[in-house]
Amino acid sequence: MLKSSTINPTSSPISISGVQVRFFSDGQSLNYDRMANYESYKKSLAKFGTINLSNLIKEHFPSNGHKKLSCIITNPFVTWVADVAINLGIPCAMFWIQPCSLYAIYYRFYNKLNSFPTLTDPDMSVELPGLPLLHTEDLPSFVLPSNPFGSLPKMFSEMFQNVKSPIGPLVPPSLLGEDEDHDTGVEMWKAEDTCIEWLNKEAPSSVIYQPDLPEPDGAGQLPLGFLEETKDQGVVVSWSPQTKALAHPATACFITHCGWNSVLETVAAGVPVIAYPKWSDQPTNAKLIVDVFRIGLRLKANQDGIVSNEEVERCIREIMGSRREGQLPVVVHRTRIFCCL
């Protein structure tokens, strides 16, 4: 795990759900804006990360020691980790963190097998094998002409060239019809079970569940007295046990940014979705939810790119109305069976 250079990278490891987590420095200060300086940060991370990760591995798994690393698992956005593994003689596997449909889109885009939106034709629709017709708002942000991350094409093309053989798909045991302990897994923050206690008191299919992503400092602060005034209408926690919340009988709907983990979890739980995608694979995942799986609706922004209160209300009313009429649960159940197969 990365830490800023202002924190001692050799600090004691922490253990989460039995998994030991060790840290190495990314070479930048705590105040450095990594997203605003993505291109330079990526180069810096490759430089300092290569050195510091190598040193971390050598320190805890010396070549003359008894403990050996079986393999290194990385993701496609830090390709330099594979170089570290090769230099140390350790097998390396890339963990693809998005659906296989996104892999197909990237492959056809970076190998120029299909036409995609350009600066001269930004509204081009894309027709790909096995997928519905994809409009601009359905495509992953990395293949759009507005993509700010200019180095990603090179990163993906290198990945496609170096992949030897695929393994998968990798899905939770619950999607395969197996019993699973919901507490198994690594949580970076301690989940608050108070929301489950609150759900236990609510009627079946009566609660809208909306997780939120981290906000910048000072953003998203609740007004004074908000929690007390709304305690009978809802509950707010700093970090929820999402799989438990989705599987709870009181949960009627999931408002989600459409990250792939969240999509898998809501399909496994059989909960309808209101999709609010933002970037990366999320727009395509939302397209799958609405037009392929048919288990939800997508919030539509106005001409200014803003989703109005009225639009949120429309989607909630439509989802809740469909649940009362017994329409969506049947489709969601069929999707669960399809995923289990």
UniProtKB/TrEMBL annotation:
This protein's record includes keyword Transferase: yes
Alphabetized CDD domains for the sequence: GT1_Gtf-like
Catalytic reaction list: an anthocyanidin + UDP-alpha-D-glucose + H(+) = an anthocyanidin 3-O-beta-D-glucoside + UDP
EC category name: transferase
Pfam families membership: UDPGT (PF00201)
EC number, as in UniProt: 2.4.1.115
Pathway: Pigment biosynthesis; anthocyanin biosynthesis
Molecular function terms, GO-annotated: anthocyanidin 3-O-glucosyltransferase activity; quercetin 3-O-glucosyltransferase activity; quercetin 7-O-glucosyltransferase activity
Keyword Phosphoprotein appears in the UniProt entry: no
Keywords: Glycosyltransferase, Transferase
Family statement: Belongs to the UDP-glycosyltransferase family.
Protein name (record): anthocyanidin 3-O-glucosyltransferase
Source species: Populus tomentosa
